[in-house]
Amino acid sequence: MKIVMNGGHCPGKDSGAVGAQLTEAAVCRQVMEQAALLLRDQGYETLTVQTNELADIVGASDGYGADLFVSVHCNAAGNKAARGSEVYFASEAGRYLAACICSRLTRELETNDRGVRDGSRLYVLRHTAAVAVLVELAFISNPVDEALLLGRTNAFAAAVVGGILDFLHGKEAEEWMKC
Ligand SMILES: [Zn+2]
Does 2-178 carry CATH code 3.30.70.20? Predict the structure, then answer.
């Protein structure tokens, strides 16, 4: 079982969304690195990838032979009231992984549950061979969510990893692995 953790955007090249205090790229780097540590603690081979070019992200994941690909991002909206977690998928197994991660995020961080969504238009999901999801942890543009992203970064990483483990330990995943 090989897992790729991808931090969205690339510090120094593309900050991603910008909040009052945080940049998306910096938050994603921390969550990616912490999640990778937790996964390695559980014995899973894990590669971290954070680079500006989407084709390079996909190439790194496929070159590594990843079984699971988890990209982390922060959401943003012009409407500052928008808040919560949502997770995108592009396959049936991906939908299940997305549901596992979204459930952990909303329970453990008490973010609003914006649910799982069809992400088949998203490049990194469409072009990755692995079961792939893209996690929008919370809204960097919302003060309540930004405070969570600032103060509880490691809890976001733990929730993402908890969702991955729920997926891997679940019945549906066993059936998926047999295929
Ligand atoms: Zn992003």
Answer: no
